[in-house]
Specification:
about 300 residues; Alpha-lytic protease prodomain-like; Alpha-Beta Plaits; 2 domains; 4-stranded mixed β-sheet; cadmium ion transmembrane transporter activity; Cation_efflux_TMD_sf
Amino acid sequence: MSPTERTAWTSLGTGLTVLALKGAAWWLTGSTALFADMLETVVNVAAACAALAAVRYSAMPADENHPYGHTKIEYFSAVLEGTLILVAASMILQEVWQAWANPRVPDQPVVGLALSAVATVINAAWATVLRRRGKRLGSPALVADSHYLMSDVVTSAGVIIGVGLVAATGLLWLDPLLAGVTAVMILFSGWRLLRESVGGLMDEGLGGEEVAAIRTLVSTNAEGAIEAHDLRTRRAGRISFVEFHLVVPGAMPVAEAHEICDRIEAALKDRLGNAVISIHVEPEGKAKHSGVVVL
């Protein structure tokens, strides 16, 4: 089992544990805000299942029908998670409308809030670990899951404080109000996740910092060449794709030009990790006098 798949399994187990705690908190109190918090975790568990399936599928090696591998499936998982978040938010808003018309005092608030607090601490700890692992392993599905978990932590903390205030002050309208705020925050989280995931499906280029690092590495490791131009990048799951044209002196032997390409490729892979590098070698007559100047 790969580290990415093992992490996805752990995320699913953590989600089920947190769901059980939040479900018990809602069942004990009957709070609309805690119901909203629990429903957000239901979505998280469903998303963890999707992430696990995507991680397992993306690990499959390239084949005849998928010569570039299967890593893009993780973006579909992230899109599904974003869609589920939006569905959960709409369900919460429906519950808010009913609770606003018929408010009620939460039952056993101390025990319910204690359970919710334990669940929130578990979520916060795992979200931090998951984000680091997802970035280290280059998994969009795991990173997306960590972002959602952290937003869940924020909303849960607000709900715990709010329900505590309801129990202490008797202001029943605070309960549906907090649930409504939770729904709005979930909507924002889902929209952001959808936007980022669709960007991956549309072959967005690497970030500005990474592109700048690529240009610097090409410039400092292409000794013997003249320039590099037409740099293009994209990311598919945990794999980065980089391609550009490298201009060399027309009389340079093929073996020497190939050695320069190997040197550049090694430097880029050391920086980017799992990457596919494509370098098109051209004679000096093709120089555009733009792009990356070799130092």
